[in-house]
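Appendix C: a fully annotated inverse folding record. The material below is reproduced so that readers can follow the format used throughout the book. The structure is listed first as tokens, followed by the designed sequence.
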């Protein structure tokens, strides 16, 4: 069954060089394939994430998805630090109408959950949200 295998988000971008600067320099991602490796410059780049990876690749369809493309789940105690790092890198947060929750300085607060949404240079919508720590952690 497909549910037994890891899944990898794929983000289309118009300019791979510009995207690499954003993901590596602004957001701090680390490429898992070195620059210049076969296909890396033409086919995209895979970035390491906490539990897998994310492919950023060139496509003429870049930025056409207006829904959230990737959600990064962050422990509650790390959320403020990550949001602060995004803000200090010049990232602005998006707000929109939702059936519940309250916006506080660009952060959605809905019960114990907090979240922000922002875009990469090609308009891909990225989300950072808190997750509860496992019981006993």
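Designed amino acids, in order:
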């Amino acid at each position: 069954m497909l549910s037994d295998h890891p899944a990898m988000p794929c983000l289309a971008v118009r300019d791979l060089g510009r995207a690499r600067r954003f993901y590596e320099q602004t957001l701090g991602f680390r490429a898992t394939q070195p620059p210049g490796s076969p296909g890396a410059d033409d086919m995209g780049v895979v970035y390491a994430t906490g539990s897998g990876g994310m492919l950023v690749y060139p496509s003429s369809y870049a930025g056409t998805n207006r829904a959230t493309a990737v959600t990064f789940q962050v422990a509650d105690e790390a959320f403020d630090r990550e949001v602060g790092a995004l803000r200090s890198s010049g990232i602005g947060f998006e707000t929109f109408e939702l059936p519940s929750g309250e916006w506080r300085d660009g952060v959605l607060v809905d019960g114990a959950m907090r979240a922000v949404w922002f875009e990469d240079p090609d308009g891909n919508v990225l989300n950072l949200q808190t997750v509860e720590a496992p019981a006993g952690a």
